[in-house]
Amino acid sequence: FMNTPVSSISEPRSTWRSKLQAIGPGVLMASAAVGGSHIIASTQAGAIYGWQLAMIVVLVNLFKYPFFRCGAQYTLDTGKSLLEGYQSKSPAYLWAFFVLNLFATVVNIAGVALITAAILSFMLPGIGINILAGGVLAVTLLVLLAGKYSALDGVSKLIMIALTASTVAAVAIAAANGGAPRAPDFIEASPWNMAALGFIIALMGWMPAPIEFSAINSLWVAVKRKLDHVSYQDGLFDFNVGYIGSALLALVFLALGALVQYGTGTEVKLAGPAYIAQLIDMYARTIGDWSRWLVAFIAFFCMFGTTLTAVDGYSRANTEAFRLIKGEKSYSTRALYIWTVLGCAAGMVVILFFKGALAPMLKFAMITAFLTTPVFAWLNLMLVRGGAHRISGGMLAFSWLGLIYLAGFAVLFLLQLVGVFG
């Protein structure tokens, strides 16, 4: 999709060793992606509708790809973050990002922390989910205030490997066994009606991650670029590995629900610890009952990793946006700490407001994430149309097609919300 660079750029030669060394920001983004969209929404989509929504998962990942790529591409091309790019276009773009990101920070941190707490409640029954969520956010805060980017980078890789291996194993065993037997009275549910639109919008909202993670990823790329002198080609390799890997993993989770639970007659629990227990049962029924606690442990650390990356990412984005708005040359570590504390505190307030109810909290977070997607996508596209590595005509046309797809679904949902479709 890329044309030859319009200017001569002196870069180190790309090798497999340099590509592997560049791996980091893309995996961080993938770690953030496997939270609600993969573990919860993708598995539920398979459990309720079988393979019917597989194409929706494929399409939303395809159509969001150019806009997520913008974050890595712009930073690798210019050395600046997307936020600096927004400001260079117009302060209004930066303000738009800052306002939308503040909202996303609160809602999405609350969402991933609540999922983490729900998994923890499976291992620690009898403790209130609000208390567990508060503990998750408190530990997240301590880790981030005491840790470094390199530690976050390494932990994310280990978590992703463990989760991927266990999920692929469960799906492979389920497929080899021919899937779960259908209940005699099973009636296939169709997602192709307005009643299912809310579920589809929620599924796409965090798939593969909330769109503002394109800007957050650009901040991680900027850090990695300074630490390891990552080249343009190697940086895009890292992004593609993370993005494509998370997209494929979404299909694997959908397959898990379709092969293990779909058609069995077992009601799919859409809320709280009850669904987490169902999810862990899926692994136990395929891999073996011995794996129940192991999978719970892996799932918990996967979601804890997602919470870490979400809090770190949103805090960095808010700190950088506020710095640019104030016109400061650089932000202090203290400023980052303040935004990190505020993000965790605000997330906890939202959890308390929803009284620990996972289903409505998560659906609200995912739907609002999708409704802001066309705005962020358009901002990103406007920003990278120039630069040393220009977007080809094919990629530009594909990007506009993606905007039409994303905006079309958003408008359709809003029309349903105001009662146009009854």
Task: Put the structure in a nutshell.
The protein is an all-alpha fold and 422 residues long.
Report what the structure shows.
This protein has 422 residues and is mainly alpha-helical. It is built from 15 helices and no strands. It has helices spanning 16-22, 25-49, 54-78, 82-89, 91-123, 129-146, 149-176, 197-205, 213-228, 232-260, 272-287, 292-326, 333-353, 358-383, 393-417. The radius of gyration is 21 Å and the shape is globular. Residues 1-9 have low confidence and may be disordered.
The structure class reads mainly alpha
Spatial gap, N to C terminus: 42 Å
Shape: globular
Count of DSSP strands: 0
Q: Which blocks of ≥5 consecutive residues have pLDDT under 50? A: 1-9
Number of helices: 15
The assembly state of the depicted protein chains is single chain
Task: Supply Rg.
Answer: 21 Å
